[in-house]
Write a structure and sequence with these properties.
- With 290 residues, this protein is an alpha/beta fold.
- It has five helices and 18 strands.
- The radius of gyration is 24 Å and the shape is elongated.
- The N and C termini lie far apart (93 Å).
- β1 and β2 form a beta hairpin.
- 20% of the residues lie in helices and 21% in strands.
- Bound molecules: 2-acetamido-2-deoxy-beta-D-glucopyranose (8 copies).
- The site of one 2-acetamido-2-deoxy-beta-D-glucopyranose has 6 residues, from loops.
Length: 290
C-alpha cells in the first residue's frame, strides 16, 4: 500500500524538479552581459569606419552600467535593455548576426538612416514586447517582412524610404494595437481596396503609403475614424475622392498630392472639423462641388 502510493509521489517530485530547472535556466542564461556580447559580436563584423562610430561599445565598458551607457542603448529601471535607438549613424551593414534574442525586453528599435541593407530578416520575431519599430531611410530590399505580424504588441511600424516591394501581406491585420503605419516611399504594389479592407479594424491614427498604388480610393477609407494623418501622395490613384472621407472627423492632415484623381473635392470635406492641412496638388481636381 505504502510502496504503491510512493511511486506517483516520487514521479511528481521528479517532474517538479525538472520543471523548476528548465524554467529557471533561460532567465539565468540571458543576462545583460549576454546582450553586450551579442552587440559586440555584431559590431565586430561591421566595416572599420562604422566600428569607430560605436566606440562606447567596447569590452572594457561592458558591465551592466557600461552597457546602459552605450550609444543608442536604452535601459529600463532594472537595467535591462529596452531600446536600441540609432539615428544617422552610418552602420553600413546588415542586421545579419545581431542576436536580438539576447535582448528579450526590447520595446523599441529605431534604426533610422543607418545605411542598413539586405532583406529584413526575421531576427525580431521573438521580441514579443516590441511596440515601436522604425527602420526608415535605409536600403532594405525584398518583400514586406510577413513575420512582423507576429509582433503582436507593435503600435508603430515605420519602413519609410527603403527599397521594399511586392504586395502587403495579410499578417499586418494581426497587429491589433497598431496606431501608426508608415510605408511611404517604397515600391509596394497591389490592390489598395483589399489592403484597406484587410487593415480596416486596426486602430490607426497615422497611415502613410506612397508606392504607385492604382485604382480609386475606396469608400471604406471612411472607417478609419481615429486617423489624424493620412498620406496617400505619390500613388497612381484615379477616380474621385469618396464622399465617405467626410467621416474622418479626427483627421488633421490629408495628403493626396501627385495622383491622377479627377472630379471635385466632395462637400463632405466640410464635416472634417479637425482638418488643418489638405494637399491635393498635382491631380486633375476642379473646384469644390457645392
Ligand atoms: C570604451 O568606452 C568608454 C566609454 O565611452 C570610453 O571612455 C573608452 O575610451 C572606450 N574604450 C575603448 C578601448 O574604445
Ligand atoms: C526582462 O525583464 C524582466 C522583468 O522586468 C526581468 O525579470 C528580466 O531579467 C529581464 N531580462 C533581461 C534579459 O534583461
Ligand atoms: C560602407 O562600407 C564599405 C566597405 O564594406 C565601404 O567601401 C564604403 O565606403 C562604406 N560606405 C560608407 C558610406 O561608409
Ligand atoms: C541568441 O541568444 C540566445 C539568448 O542568449 C541564445 O539562447 C541563442 O543561442 C543565441 N543564438 C545564437 C545564434 O547565437
Ligand atoms: C526564437 O526563440 C526560439 C525558442 O527560444 C528559438 O528557437 C529561435 O531560434 C528564436 N528565433 C530567433 C530569430 O532568434
Ligand atoms: C494592446 O493594448 C492594450 C491596451 O493598452 C493592452 O492591454 C494589450 O495587452 C495590448 N495587446 C498586445 C498584444 O500587446
Ligand atoms: C512610380 O512609377 C514611376 C514610373 O514608373 C517611377 O518612376 C517611380 O519611382 C515609382 N514610384 C514609386 C514610389 O514606386
Ligand atoms: C455632416 O455631419 C452631419 C452630422 O453627422 C450629417 O448630418 C451631415 O449629413 C454631414 N454632411 C455631409 C456633407 O456629409
Amino acid at each position: 500500500m505504502i510502496a504503491t502510493s510512493r511511486k506517483p509521489f516520487m514521479a511528481a517530485t521528479f517532474l517538479l524538479l525538472v520543471t523548476l530547472q528548465s524554467s529557471s535556466s533561460p532567465t539565468t542564461v540571458v543576462t545583460t552581459s549576454t546582450a553586450a556580447n551579442a552587440l559586440l559580436k555584431w559590431k565586430s563584423r561591421l566595416p572599420s569606419q562604422s566600428q569607430a562610430l560605436l566606440s562606447s561599445w567596447n569590452k572594457s565598458n561592458s558591465d551592466t552600467a557600461g552597457l546602459c551607457s552605450w550609444k543608442g542603448i536604452v535601459c529600463d529601471a532594472w537595467q535591462s535593455v529596452m531600446g536600441l535607438n540609432l539615428v544617422h549613424v552610418s552602420i553600413n551593414g546588415t542586421l545579419r548576426g545581431l542576436n536580438f534574442s539576447s535582448m528579450p525586453n526590447l520595446t523599441m528599435i529605431v534604426l533610422v538612416n543607418c545605411l542598413l541593407s539586405g532583406v529584413i530578416l526575421p531576427v525580431f520575431s521573438n521580441l514579443t514586447k516590441l511596440t515601436d519599430l522604425d527602420l526608415g531611410l535605409n536600403s532594405f530590399s525584398g518583400g514586406f517582412p510577413a513575420f512582423l505580424g507576429y509582433l503582436k504588441s507593435l503600435q508603430s511600424l515605420g519602413l519609410t524610404d527603403n527599397l521594399l516591394k511586392g504586395t502587403l501581406p495579410g499578417s499586418i491585420a494581426a497587429l491589433t494595437n497598431l496606431t501608426s503605419l508608415n510605408l511611404k516611399n517604397n515600391q509596394f504594389s497591389g490592390d489598395f481596396t483589399s489592403f484597406i479592407r484587410l487593415i480596416s479594424s486596426l486602430p490607426l491614427q497615422t497611415l502613410m503609403l506612397s508606392s504607385n498604388f492604382t485604382g480609386a480610393i475606396p469608400s471604406s477609407i471612411g472607417k478609419f475614424t481615429k486617423l489624424t494623418m493620412l498620406y496617400l501622395g505619390n500613388n497612381m490613384f484615379s477616380g474621385s475622392i469618396p464622399s465617405y472621407i467626410g467621416s474622418l472627423n479626427s483627421l488633421q492632415q490629408l495628403y493626396l498630392r501627385s495622383n491622377s484623381i479627377t472630379c471635385h473635392i466632395p462637400c463632405t470635406i466640410g464635416n472634417m472639423s479637425s482638418l488643418v492641412r489638405l494637399c491635393v496638388l498635382d491631380n486633375q481636381i476642379h473646384e469644390l462641388r457645392t
